[in-house]
Amino acid sequence: MNLRELNVKSDLTLLYIDLEGVRFVTSPITLPGHAESWLRVGITKDCVLVVQTPKRARSIYGDRHILLVAIVTAKHRFNVELNKLAGVVFMGDEFKVENEPKGNKG
Question: What pLDDT is attached to residue 68?
Fold first, then answer.
């Protein structure tokens, strides 16, 4: 899988990502100095990878590293075939998914 930067022009409309029914798992990640953080990974019914982690973790590790960890998590936890991924969405940690089933962490 090649990672490419997506250049979005201001006159283009972004695609709608349907988050209804997204399955999420939350995995702990360790920051430098042994501080704990988390990475939340979901997959939509359209095979869009949804990644959520605190800004601090993204600033320390960078989006590429977080994305690679998210892809590995999706492959192992959701049995996702990587060539079937349609896209990736990074969500800030301030966003909440209201329809997330209870007890779907870890």
Answer: 92
Give the number of other Cβ atoms within 10 Å of residue 98's Cβ: 6
What are the strands of the beta sheet with 23-30, ordered from one edge? 23-30, 36-43, 48-52, 87-91
Tens-digit pLDDT profile for residues 10-51 = 555 556 778 888 889 998 988 888 888 899 999 998 899 999
CA distance to 14, 15, 64, per residue, from 68 (Å): 23, 23, 6
The candidate with the shortest Cα–Cα distance to 90, out of 1, 6, 2, 21, is 6
- 38, two tokens: 């988390």
Write the CA distances from 9 to 6, 12, 78, 92, integer angstroms.
10, 6, 33, 22
